[in-house]
Amino acid sequence: MKVYAVKTLPPERFFSQPVYLDQQFVIAAPEMAVSAAIKSALQEWGFETIQSEGEPREDYSPEEIPARGTAAAAPKESVDAEQIKKAEGLYTNFQSYVESLFAQMSMNIPPQFNEIAGKIKELCDTIKDDRRYLLRVVLRNAEPKTEQNYLTSHTVKSTILAIIIGSYLKLTSRRLIELGVAAVLHEAGMLRLQPKVYMNKGALSREEQKAILSHPILGFNVLKSFNLPLSVTIAALEHHERENGEGYPRRLTGDRISFYAKIIAVACSYEALTNDRPYKEAKDGFAGMLDLLKNERKQYDDTVIRALVFSLSIYPIGLYVLLSNGKKGQVVDVNPENPRYPIVQLLGVLTPDGKTKILETSQGGVHIVRPLVRDELE
């Protein structure tokens, strides 16, 4: 273990191995800089040295570094940080693509099915390999909602959720891509409305209500005029239909609603519940999931609801939670056997070799007490 003098250590240095105050107490993981604030606090507390088997660097590098007493292995936090960064990049790029696609459609430039299908295939491949990292990006509520990105953000998140649901339901690759294209284009009718209508923070006028209720029909007509497949245009037409016949525009029931529309309806509803809107604040993922599980008035297909629950868990991936042992954590993966007891990453707790501490919650062991609110995280 190498010893470094706190006083002479340049600020904002990233160590290639965890930094310790003593043999047990970790003060910085590899992707966390030893900042000027940390240096100042250490000196104020009277600590003159820190220890690490790594070397200080100006920039963080997630390369594989041998952990203490082990063969070469990347610290798990570094791997997590790298995968999250990769997922963020994919999400941002896909959102930019959808934004440009919507801009072209607003100018009456026809969307190309094969082009969109290619983007969806890339998304499907990522979901197959790194679903849990992408969900941690998708299901957080950090991004601001503006008139420019509201429809784009809603579409991107709903599309990813729809594909995840479709994957659980074992749709073939062809149908999964078709579902993804339908999800990307399901709000095409909204592009024919003035943003002030769907961004309205107050009660809608009768004319505005009529405009909102007309958007599935507008979307169907627009997509049909662009010669897109019937399965895509029908999904746009029916994504607001409900199992009990209380949806719109045609008040269809049960089996009369297309399967893609049933999936998109659940994905859209969960996205809407768990994200801010001009007229309401977001619910946390747990509260949103409970709302859908209640399935009041039997609005949604039970098979699709089950697929959402088992894909995300009742405490969805990305949710910050309080555990029964008093620790705080973040849900990072599902338990395929029981959606009530997901996999949780503890916050601020590392193993002695600097790895992230992960635990499986269970009925008889450590379990989730409740979700955390934003103030508790701060």
**Taking all residues together, what is the mean pLDDT?**
85
Order of helices and strands: EEEEHEEHHHHHHHHHHEEEEEH
Tell me how many strands there are. 11
CATH architecture of the largest domain: Orthogonal Bundle
Poorly predicted runs: 63-77
**Biggest β-sheet strands, sense, barrel:** 5 strands, antiparallel
User: How much β-strand is present in the residues?
Assistant: 5-15%
Biggest sheet strand line-up:
10-9-8-7-11
Helix/strand structural class? alpha+beta
N/C terminus separation: 33 Å
Percent of residues in helices comes to 40-55%
CATH fold call of the largest domain: Hypothetical protein af1432
> What top-tier CATH class of the largest domain fits best?
Mainly Alpha
CATH homolog superfamily of the largest domain: Hypothetical protein af1432
CA-atom Rg in angstroms: 24 Å
Count up the helices.
12
Q: What is the global morphology?
A: elongated
**Any idea how many domains?**
3
Walk me through this protein's architecture.
By secondary structure, this protein is an alpha+beta fold. The protein has three domains: 2-60, no CATH class; 77-312, Hypothetical protein af1432; 320-377, no CATH class. The protein contains twelve helices and eleven strands. Strands 10-9-8-7-11 form a five-stranded antiparallel beta sheet, with helices on one face. It has a two-stranded antiparallel sheet with strand order 1-5. Strands 2-6 form a two-stranded antiparallel sheet. It is elongated. The protein starts with a strand and ends with a helix.
Keywords, separated by commas or semicolons:
378 residues; alpha+beta; Hypothetical protein af1432; 3 domains; five-stranded antiparallel β-sheet; two-stranded antiparallel sheet; 12 helices
